[in-house]
Amino acid sequence: MSKPLVVITGASSGIGEACAKTLSAAGHPLLLVARRIERLEALNLPNTLCRKVDVTELADFEQAIKDAEALYGPVDMLLNNAGVMLLGAAHEQAPSEWKTMLDVNVMGLLNGIHLVLAGMKQRQQGTIINVSSIAGRKTFPSHAAYCGTKFAVHAVSENIREEVAGDNVRVTVIAPGAVETELLSHTTSQEIKDGYEVWKEEMGGVLNTQNIADAVAYAYGQPQNVCIREVVLAATGQP
Ligand code: NDP
Fold this sequence. Notes:
The chain is 46% helix and 16% strand. It has helices at residues 14-25, 37-42, 58-72, 95-123, 144-164, 190-202, 209-221; strands at residues 5-9, 30-34, 48-52, 75-80, 126-131, 169-176, 230-233. Helix 4 (95-123) links the parallel strand 4 and strand 5 (126-131). NADPH dihydro-nicotinamide-adenine-dinucleotide phosphate binds next to helix 1 and helix 4. Residues 9-16, 34-36, 54-56, 81-85, 104, 108, 131, 133, 176, 178-179, 181-183 line the site of NADPH dihydro-nicotinamide-adenine-dinucleotide phosphate (NDP).
């Protein structure tokens, strides 16, 4: 029997890319969205629709989902993974960076949920997996706005999980510690970036993207009557 459609946001690099490869290898048709469509297309995965979508643009996101459902049937799982981390001291950081993080990490995630949830409730079947962070459970220096967005991901996820539990829809939060990806590269302060690299070295290395993809596959792969509510994973050496 053919596998159902999975939607992955932010699949053009890092964790999203690893999840796309893993879920494609497991036989799922995919909708991959991100702004760098050339990176999505370069993955060259079978039964995959790639769309240039900024997750903060609801209409574009909605059209991509409609087109994917026309090809592959209803969305069975949404992996809300797209995110940005712009670290900075609160008194120095440009408020526009806070807005970018709130828009992508919170509004983009809510947009995804909004677009798939009605169908899932109607079908009485579906899974939403939201990528948060350990920075959504505890705070770190220079992370105020980023932590704010990731704490919000936990709150939103738990609230929606309760809301749709009776509809046989699962909501899972994956909260990774540090993972080797492009995430840090967008922070503008070289001092903060250098400090982060030292911190990673001191802990003896961080997780790789496949570690997170395995956690996603584990949570999604449970029978529908089992909801893995939260997975928190980090390098053993991460304090
Ligand atoms: P990357 O920077 O490698 O990936 C981020 C992805 O998000 C890219 O594919 C990017 O695509 C996409 N993205 C960013 N903004 C938008 C947007 N407006 N619309 C659509 N897509 C967007 O970092 P990671 O893989 O590390 O990050 C993935 C998730 O994991 C994030 O939510 C991050 O917060 C979380 N995380 C990461 C950790 C880490 O240490 N790396 C730790 C804990 C959580 P494009 O630029 O092409 O649009």
